[in-house]
Amino acid sequence: MVLPGSASLLDCIDKRLLVILRDGRNLTGILRSYDQFANLVFQDTIERIYAGDCYGDIPRGVFLVRGENVVLLGEIDGDREDAMPIREAPIEDVLSMQRTALDARQATLAIEAKALHAKGFCTDHDKNDMY
Questions:
Q1: Does residue 43 lie within any of the structural domains?
Q2: Backbone angles phi, psi at 18, to 5 degrees
């Protein structure tokens, strides 16, 4: 039997779940409670940050997630998680790698925007941009 709306979360209580938020954060934790708006309460929550083939975990404890911020919610299969081809690294190293990748991406975007502007396209946040 399939339950409508947030009632379908009833089977997920007391299980370790992965939730991906609108801002891109990945959280794992034990679902303890929810309400009719799909607001979620997690216990032993961990924020996992990925960079390349590494990841780092930041413990967050009890975490309340507003339902409208949930993009994806699913149960974690422990066997598959252990078999993933990524390795754990100290969070400082992962954050540094993530910052380096972000800086490289922003530099690439700046070069692309400059090339497009040279061909007559408007750049974002330009003073002549009418949007």
A1: yes
A2: -105, 135
CATH number for the domain that contains residue 81? 2.30.30.100
Q: Quick one: 127 exposed, middle or buried, by C-beta within 10 A (0-12, 13-18, 19+)?
A: exposed
Model pLDDT for residues 4-21, shown as the tens digit of each residue: 677 778 888 999 999 999
Between 130 and 32, the more confident residue is: 32
Instruction: Identify whether the C-beta of residue 73 lies closer than 8 Å to the C-beta of residue 81.
Output: no
* Total number of domains in the chain: 1
What residues contact 19, with CB distance under 8 A and at least 6 apart? Answer: 26, 27, 28, 29, 40, 42, 65, 70, 72, 73
0.70 exceeded by pTM:
yes
Q: Is 26 part of any domain?
A: yes
Q: Residue 128 has what pLDDT?
A: 63
Q: Is 92 inside any structural domain? A: yes
